[in-house]
Amino acid sequence: MSLKLLQKTVGPWPMNTYVIICEESKSSAIIDPGADAKDILAMTEGTRVSKILLTHAHRDHVGALAEIKQTTKAPIFLHPDEKEMFNVRFDVSLRGGDTLKVGNHRVHTFHTPGHTPGMICFDIGDSRIIVGDTLFVNGPGATKTPRDFAITMRTMTNIVFKWPDDTEFFPGHGPSGKIGDERSAFEAFVKSGWAKDLCGDVTWM
User: Fold this and answer.
1) Is the pLDDT of residue 1 over 90?
2) pLDDT of 68-114, one tens digit each?
3) Quick check: is 116 in a domain?
4) Cα 186 off chain centre by
5) Exposed site from 136, 148, 179, 194, fewest CB < 10 Å?
6) Are 98 and 108 in contact (CB under 8 A)?
C-alpha cells in the first residue's frame, strides 16, 4: 500500500499544503503548513503527526508552522540554508539524499536550490514528488537574481529533468504536472538559450 496523499489550498496567495499518511500505522507528516492550521490538522484526523516537513521557509509556506508545532509536538525538518536566510526554527536538518520514515514507508529527499538555497523535494513513492516552489507547470519557481536563475537551471538539468517522464510533481502553488509533459518545452528553452540577466518569473514557452 502506498502513502496516502492529501492536498489543501490555504492562505491568501494561495499555497498547497500536503499531508502524507501511512494507513497501516496511522502515522502522518505535514508538508508546508502555510496557513489555516485548523484545516490542515483536520486532514490528519485519526493519525499521529510524526513529522513537519518544509520544502523551504518562505512565509507563505510556514505561516501556520508555530500553531502546528504547538499542537502536534512533531519535529520540524528543514534544510539549514533556509534558517540562515529566513531565521525559521527547526529541529532536524534535511539534506539531499536523506531518507525519512513515515510509518512503514520511506520518503527520499532531493536538494533543489534556485528559488531558495535550501529547497528540498520529497519523493513519496509511486512516481510522486512534492516539489515546493522548485517547479510549476510551464516553468520553474521565481528567482530574484540572474545567479539564482543559473542555479535553478543547473538544478533542472542535473536533478529535476533526470526524473522519469511518468513522475508526477506536486508544487507549492497551482496544479500538479508530469515531467514528461514539461520535458520538450524545457529542452527547447535550453536549446534556444537565455539572456544573462534573466530572472524573475520565467516560463519555458
Assistant:
1) no
2) 999 999 999 999 999 878 999 999 999 999 999 999 999 999 999 99
3) yes
4) 20
5) 194
6) yes
DSSP β-bridge partners for residue 48: 27
Contact 176, 170 (CB under 8 A): yes
Nearest to 171 by CA among 203, 133, 140, 200: 133
Count Cβ neighbours within 10 Å for each residue of 96-114 and write b for 16 or more, e otherwise.
Answer: bebebebbebebebbbbbb
Would you state the cell numbers that stand for residue 31, as one nine-digit string?
A: 508538508
This prediction has a pTM of 0.98
Residue 197: inside a domain, yes or no?
Answer: no
Provide the greatest CA pair distance for the chain.
51
Residue with cell 533543489: 112
Supply φ then ψ for residue 93, to 5 degrees.
-75, 140
Cα end-to-end distance, the chain, whole Å? 38
Q: Grid cell 529527499 — which residue? A: 109
Contact 76, 45 (CB under 8 A): no
Domain containing 148 equals: 4-192
Within-domain flag for 57: yes
